[in-house]
Specification:
single chain, 262 residues, 2 domains, 3-stranded antiparallel sheet, 5 strands, elongated
Length: 262
Amino acid sequence: MPVSPDLLAAFLTAMAGLYSHSAFTNYVSGIHAWHMIHNLPWPMEMPLADAVQHAATAVMPDTSVKLKHLPICLLHLQLLWSHFNLLNSIDAAIWACVTSLFYGVTHLGELTTRSLKVKDFNPNKHVMPARVSTDQNWQHEIVTIIFIPITKCSSEGQEIYWAKQDHESDPDFALANHFCVNKPGPREHLFAHSVNNKCCPLSFGCFTACIDKAFQGTDSERFSGHSFCMLPWQKLHLRSPQLDGNRYSSAPVGLRFGLGSS
């Protein structure tokens, strides 16, 4: 049976002030869709529906909407570079991860683990030195390739690519420095580092805590793991409009093999 107008209005009124405008609208749309699927009359007249939705928007809690994240750019990378001591174990690991994130255009969760515990590292899921290789792009530049076994886009894994950069944030140097300082084994976490003389994988929380500390006094609360891939992804799209959501699957060879040094 269709819901009565009074009951629907009471339900929506009770939701007002608890959810964001988009969540509230989705609830209304879902109930409306159910009535359409079952060929039942929509009980709420449009003026009443609009009035309830406008009222809900007016009392929407501030906490229901998060601030938009700021993108990380080269200036931010320079700030991070000046903050880190690249001879320090954790700094070397995080800096290598930062540059791989930025130039590899990937998500933080795909290069880190849930915690510092070794048991949270899964060789079938996480990145390892054994999955790092090199190739050449169309400009004949040496390109580093990191295979990620499982990503948000593919359960079969995907590769990220980057070339040497003429900048302090050169990911080629950062990864080589990390390997020299931390010497992770072939089947350990790619960004493994030393904590109290114990080898640990690089965790999401450890990474974000160090980044927040480095950005202290700035808009650090506006940065997230996704901030590192925003600008590079836009750059790739500007170079190649045919890029799709499957990362580099439809990209030209030059883009699939990393951002060049230019």
